[in-house]
Design a protein that fits this description.
Distance between the termini: 60 Å
Helix content: 25-40%
Number of strands: 42
Largest sheet: 7 strands, mixed
Structural class: alpha/beta
Shape: globular
Length: about 1100
Amino acid sequence: MATFRELKFVRNLSERGDTNSKVDLLQEEGTDNFVVRKMIYGIDIPLYQAVFTREVRALYKLNKCDNIVRILGHDNLMVRNTKERVGVIYLENITGVPLSKAIIQNLSSKEKFQIVQQVIEAVIISHSNGIIHRDINPNNIMVSEDKTVKVIDFGICKIKDMINVATVYALGTSAYSAPEVHQHSENASEQSDLYSLGAVIYFLFTGKQPPLANEFQNIIDKTSGIDIELKPILKKLVSEKVDDRYEDIYETRNAFASIFVRFLDIQKTVVFTMEYENYNKLKYQRLLPTTVGIREASDEYLPNNFVDLYAFCKDGEDSEATYTFLGYNYTMDCTYDEMLNIFCVKDFQKIVPYIRESLKKKYTPIGAKVLFIDRKYAYRQQKNDSLEIKNIIQDYYNTYLSKNNVDYEYKDNYGVWRELLTLIKENIENSIVRLPYDSFKIEGDILRFVLQKGTFIDESRLTKEQSFVYEKKIRGKRDKVKAFLIGTYENDTFEKENVILEIKKQSTVSLPSRGYICLDYTKDMVNVDRQLEALDVLEKEDYQCSFNLKRVIAGVEKPTVHQITKELRLYNEKLDFPQSTAVQKALNAESIAIIQGPPGTGKTNVIIEIIRQIIKENEKNPELEPKKILLVSQSHPAVDKMIEDLIKDCKERPDLLRIGRDEKLNEEVREDYALSYVKERWVKAVKNNCKKYADTLLKEIGITEEEFCKYYQEKEKAQIENEKGKNVDKDFIKAFEKKTSGIKSERTRKILEIQKEWIEQITRCEETELYIIKSTTIIAGTCTGFISNKVIKNADFDYVIVDEAAKATFPELAVSLNKAHKIILVGDHQQLPPVLDTDIIRANSEKLNEEKLAHGIFEKLYEMFPIENKHRLTIQYRMHPTIGTLISHVFYEDEIQNGVEASERQLNIQGYEDIAIEWISTSNKPDKERYEIEYNNGKKSYKNNLERKIIKEKLLELDEKLKEKTKVAVITAYIPQKYILSTMVKQLSFENLIVEVDTVDAFQGSQKDIIIYSTVRSSANPYKIGFLKSEARLNVAFSRARCLLIIVGDLKFLDNDKIRPKKFFEIVEYIRNHDHCRIVEY
């Protein structure tokens, strides 16, 4: 991996030609890596700008085709002395010569057809991507020594989805161009490339330049030396009339099928050599008679064992690969000698018949005879297809990996998720909460349901986000129902032994006077179905990625990085070295990059910088298709927080759309970026522009707006079938049309009518959303929620950036990973893991491995990825250094540094002048007073009244001593404790404290000045600490504190090194041995 500046000039390959381009060979300093640089001068001139833009766009689209030159990067430069703008394209170096310079008379028929086959494959890939080359000729076909073909020079290609005012009609009109291209290059179609292909094949088999199109077919008839089966194919390819050629490249490939069988599937010879010791080894293993000499063994015994030959490859990498050949009685392990083009035998293994039959299913058949020779005579061997055999085995090995090993590794790592989702779906279907009601009435936008006596609702589910549905039977489908949304929870009361449920109406649904309503289960079902669909896409490898995503996440293939990288100029100059390195690695990655952001290390700043760098590239190359970004996170608040930070950092309004239900979005983000609001503003702007234009037209023909509107309405009424002319003012229509008669006036009237009709349709037209989405650079939403919009569901992105990726389950991530060509995951697997339904998992332990599910994909990938594709941020800026060092020591192996001074994190609290961490211990209180209280409401949980009392006293003390508004979070791992703490806080009035109470999970991603952590657990059982064993939860809870961390709980109970993992033991030890910490006995 090198920057542009680290490439040194080697030699010039070609000077400026028709496309005003110069080609040089460069070398990466200190390595054997070579790169080709193509410089297109004068790109401020439309013609050469078009050449540059077309080639860059085409090559990026075709970058994974083996038979098309690979682009490594591009840039815009300016020549200092002339101020001439230059477009630079960096390409892979191809060792070979153009077909035009190849000694084609020395090529065998087989080699010629190999070249034809590869050119056809390149054209197939090109055409399937909507790219017409327009300049296929022998100069643009590179052939290497092993006859590998690379098609080059897409500078005058035609890209179907590209609009460019510049024309390149003057270029590419050689003898190889189709006659319609000679007339004008914009006439080029896929069939024009077929003509050029035919002309190249004619040159390849005759050595002659193509004749004129009107003479071509006759000359082919008269030309000797062309196979009789090839002649009719060539004649059809070079037909003067487009319609007489093959319909497309696929039909062309089919026409060549039988010729390829004849010339490419011929009997081969594979050559082996081996040392004298191996002959003795065969004799020692009784695989060769002891009386047989080397000559006889080489000419008879060994070839006879390998008459029915199969082969396989081990270790995969070409330079280290072991090639195993399967015979009747033994296998032969070999290495390949590239210099001599022979296989060198290293070992033999005896096999029994049933093992051989089993191996035959795994190995690939090789249609070749074996030849054993002395190594020193290898260079004399005329018939030697060992290179081809080696490539056949290698290709088969790669195919085998993709079909077998990849599937096995993928299933082993991720197969359990499909099982879990299927069980979750079944559980949703079996757990629908149906609430019977006796009556309902409508009061404004509120529906008041009187639930049947004895019907109650789980209080934990009654939030403002809880919606309700009504199920209607589907006609003609027995036992099938469809759920219709009624509205969302507003309130519930208890009157005369009945629960009165108030629902805020969101849609109009016809309801019976009595019946059932349901807690909305449809969102959960849709969410599960989206995730199952995402797994289907991944498993079938039907994703948008330009790399093999399934192989990479299965660990079979390493993620890659760009060979050429650009020097990074940061927008945010305050980024530290680990942060800027993370940005560089994310941009350098060719497939996936993963960034671990421990607490307070600025991962949001890194994400924003990455986005701004991508936007900068778009602005720098306005002629190229802009790179689109999908920005997702696990929750709506996390997405909105990223957007707010991005807005704050960008000087101009970011080109962004927020996808999600309006009521779920932050108000500021919703009004500026929600799709419905953006659409409304766009429609309003379009209507205003149309009105201005319409006013101008009306003025030109002397008509008022009122007159035209009446005319339009009357015309509409006349077109409604059931009106049959009733109530239509025909006289007005006739008079208006007479008034606007004449060529110009009638034309203007038609324009006004079309515009009026379009304006009326634009609001409800789906194409409006499609236009807005397609023209927006950044689409933001939740991991699974963004595809709720069907336009986006079918879109693909250049980048997907996932924040809080470690908190998402594999199927949740799969929904967004399937949509992008490049993936950047940001998160921290040492903070909160994905939320799992442990009840279902444990109830199905024979099917589901809880341990595999608990370790998310983020952690797996971080552990297996090479250093070039991953990075950890290592300087925290949130916490007081004493708290930061605690987090680093206990959770991150002392890897996290502190980037903030203690003086910046001090609160003016009497008694806490030099304290950052305090443990208020309950250990000296009587058992009955300090012990936890078990609480069982379907699930076992705990609360601790003593800790509530202490926290109340501490909050009042802090509120009295503080002189300014201070944010405090009271955190616990247990819901019953959260409830009693919340109730207590609501009953208090604070002057200086802003207090939030919640469980650990609610606080990831946030920070407060003071954190008070209630441990809850204390009992006679010294090993029973439940949730407190979770390292991730402790990490999140403690690392929320900016200035002061107060832990409340039984210190002696938790200070136990026999509890595994022993994090509390380490925490207590840290507090005892460090300054700015103290333990207070209550």
